[in-house]
Amino acid sequence: MVHTGDRLFELRDIQTLEVLEEGRAERDGIMTGIAYQPVTAPGLTVCFVSEAELLAEPGRKFAKMEEGWHLS
Hints:
There is one protein chain. The protein is mostly beta strands. It has no helices and four strands. A two-stranded antiparallel ribbon has the order 1-2. The protein has a two-stranded antiparallel ribbon with strand order 3-4. The radius of gyration is 18 Å and the shape is elongated. The protein starts with 6 loop residues before the first strand and ends in a 22-residue tail after the last strand. The relative contact order is 0.22.
């Protein structure tokens, strides 16, 4: 889970280690769509944040779950 303004990534120059770009979460949600390329460039999508809604506390069923369903 990430929150608005959290730093998601830093893109650095491979020789100088200067920060070329910094990505921050634009909204609360879950970080998804992670790019697995070992090298990228400024302006390319490295990751993005999908909106998320908490339906139940961790480890508990939420109201819409059918009877008989259980956590494993």
